[in-house]
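so my prof wants the structure for this chain in the tokens format not the other one, which i didnt know existed until like an hour ago. anyway here's the sequence
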Amino acid sequence: MNRRSFLSTTGLSTYSLAVFANNALADQTSAPATLLPPRPDFDRIAPAGALLSGIEKHMHTVDLETDVLVAGGGLAGVCAAIAAARQGSRVVLVQDRSRLGGNSSSEVKMHVVGANQHTGRPGWREGGLIEEIRLADAVNNPQRSWELWDLLLYDKVVSEPNITLLLETVLYSAAVKDGKITEVAARCDKSEHLYRIRAKVFCDCTGDSRLGLEAGAELRTGRETRSEFGESLAPEKADNETLGSSILFTSRLYHNPMPFTPPAWARKITKEQLVHRKIDSWEYGYWWIEWGGNKDIVRDNERIRFELLSIVMGVWDYIKNSGDFPDSRDWAMDWVGMMSGKRGGRRLLGDHILTQNDLMKSSFRDSVAIGGWAMDDHPPGGFDRPDLPPNTVLRPPEVYDIPLRCLYSRNVSNLMMAGRNISATHTAFTSARVMATCAVIGQAVGTAAAQSVETGVSPREVAVNSQHLSRLQQTLLRDDQTIKGLRNQDPRDLARLSTVTASADAAPAKAALVLDGFTRDIPDEKGYPKEVHHWAAPVSEGKPAWIQLQWPEPRQIRHLQITFDSGFRRQLTLTAQDSQNRGIVRAPQPETVRDYVVTCTTAGGKTLTLATVRNNFQRLNRHYFDVPDARSLRIDVQATNGADEARIFEIRCYA
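here's what i got, hopefully its the right format
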């Protein structure tokens, strides 16, 4: 792994160092003279004057060859692209908008939620890439700017040397031969380029399954009948309806009267329409302003947007002018979404279809990610059904497994999918659709796609072959992905062969637990540890805590990996909703180790300083060096970001 990959792994890309001066580990990094994102080789475009016929006669063609093509730049696509790139694959990421992040971007401003259900299932915040991104956002964006979230995602992608990012580029066609996609076509009208992209594995992270649709992959829309899978939340009869879309708004307090006159096309809202829809604050819109689930969510998108805007204007008119909310006098809108945030859409079919029953009680040998959001079904009529509550909730008793067999197409052998379009029934989709779950699915798909490229086997073979599957799962665990019940059994991890000692133990957090294979505590219902899987020891100024690995024989060590505590018990997300922001730490998480020194003792008795780290805020940190004959390795924790204990979940060493 080169230096730029290391920086991205720790959340400290060279671009971040330029933009965010307070990022960590600066003493270990040096920015290159220039940093340009990888771009297509424009020397290969069609010769000057060579024009295509018809409507595309002024477009220029660009041929691209890559390992993995990721279509869609929401959080699923971003995490899939980064994961594949960090595993060594060349990646082309095609995004049809000017920014990354999908519904989490500044175009929609939906906060990222997942298995911890805001604060309803504390302790189950996702690890891996989405945690890396959230931690960086909390530190570098305390002002809660959505545009800086956009920039962070852009930075994470363009700082990966293996990724070519194509923004404002729409995938519109796919060529398939013998059940495999051979190439796709995409166009960027801003630059007047047509791209023909050939890849070995293709990942559909578009939400609406556009790539799968063009490739002829089997898919479903709408809701299954209750009897097909025995799902209590499914309707008696199958239909083509789904969840609607929403448009959010934000408002601010200006401390002087701020009148509002609605446009002529705004709906006139009455109190009766809000019987089941609660208004108790108005700084961050309402998810229940939802419409279009009983329409064609793709083809009727423009009408859905208009209706949602008319409802938003009508609801704000009611807040400002009905007389029921006098406290709104000094408030005014400062942003309205002009793009609807989609929920429902097409779902691609894999070898397994995730169901309500799977979410309630299941385990899969090919698990690669977790979910945990409640099954959260909405009436397809949305706001037009004021007689119904805006949602019906069934909460899985625990976080649940998501198997790899739901993440590749059953009939297009090199097509994978991540996001809200995975192989699931409508009922299971109502849980798996949320963005943090989509992100961990994306990390799993990107990792599996890279392994498929490297080994030359199909995603299906990775799922059914125990050797390939074990390698994938162990790689995901190494990269801080949570998979229920699985622990580190990586035979290459030399730390597992060592003996552990420490300056002290804060019982029951014993030093040996850094080698027990788990990188998170298992929480009780209140989020406190029910099973402890970390080491902790008191630390204070002038009194560092240390932990040491020792081997009976000298070992060559080139790679050290440390997983710190980052406060999974709390919610951590970017949100404009004040009630959700309470309790979120928009700064380094206090439990996380801030300053530490890594040393080793060689077979000859020399003590070498391998790393000196200041101002760390990331959970997962990797260090690269070459010690041919290490007898012991020690981490001295000098300070945390606020906690009075040093906490480490896992230490790994590789040659």
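also thought this was worth mentioning. The chain has a mean pLDDT of 92.
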